[in-house]
Amino acid sequence: MTNLESIPLGIYEKGIPLALPWKKKFQIAKKTGFDYIELSVDGQSCRLQRLAWTDQDCAELKALTRQFQMPFRTMALSASRFFPLGDPLLSDQGIDIIKKAVQLAARLDIPVIQLAPYDVYQKLSTPETRARFTAALLKVLDFARKYSIVLAMEVLEDVPHFCRIGQCTDYIRELRHPQLKLYADTGNLAYNGYDAAEELTYAHGEIIACHLKDAVFHNEHNVPFGSGLVDFNRCLHYFKHIPYEGTFTAEVWCEEDMSFIPQLSSIHRFLAAKIMEENRK
């Protein structure tokens, strides 16, 4: 049994406008009740440049995590979507980006990196691209082991061979690498019409982090919590009844709109209430 109320509940960085300074981001996350911010490194040049942060940049950011008592716990490396490991033209760049992300995570004391496991992006996946993906993944996993960083593959809504929990779990167990785990996502599962709560039961202890978001069929982007297909009580019931030591992150996007910020409080209230309700049953 797991005390759900002891599980850190974070906010995806993209739920807070990028233009704001980091101190303001921490103030917003703290005020709205979240325990941490999930750092985003996506395909935008301004976020990719984070991979070149200096020691001073990292020291200043770590000082803020201590000031607000909000340590980073996960990094979302969605940039790997655009540099897929199975693409012969992009694989080397993808490997380099993941290695730099691992080094950044180590400097910021982030134990888990969410990896988007695309072998190709907007191209035809083939046995050859999937084999190249696996070979490259094993290289970066060995690199991550040197830094004690876990790479957690995301269950994806748009990759047929990694869109269900069982598929991801089978792959993780096939590779049997200690640095490879699963990053679940309730919305990505519901996107394809799957029962997220039932899907979670096929994880068999491989989940190290979970995005909590709602979805309707073929739409998982900012669907209001409680209005979509995800049964959060049943999902949380699953985590309650396993020895779960990972994290929960509310995945939302503010679209750089400052007026979105007040919604963060209601999002936190919704999830915290569901967590408390299920925990105390």
What does this structure look like?
The chain is an alpha/beta fold and 281 residues long. It has one domain: Divalent-metal-dependent TIM barrel enzymes (TIM Barrel, Alpha-Beta Barrel). Helices cover 40% and strands 14% of the residues. It has ten helices and eight strands. The protein has helices at 22-31, 45-48, 55-67, 91-107, 127-146, 165-175, 186-191, 196-200, 232-240, 263-279, and strands at 9-12, 36-40, 74-77, 112-115, 150-154, 180-185, 207-212, 247-250. It has an eight-stranded parallel beta barrel with strand order 1-2-3-4-5-6-7-8, surrounded by five helices. Helix 5 (127-146) links the parallel strand 4 (112-115) and strand 5. This is L-ribulose-5-phosphate 3-epimerase. InterPro entries: IolE/XylAMocC-like (IPR050312), Xyl_isomerase-like_sf (IPR036237), Xyl_isomerase-like_TIM-brl (IPR013022). Its EC number is 5.1.3.22. Keywords: Isomerase.
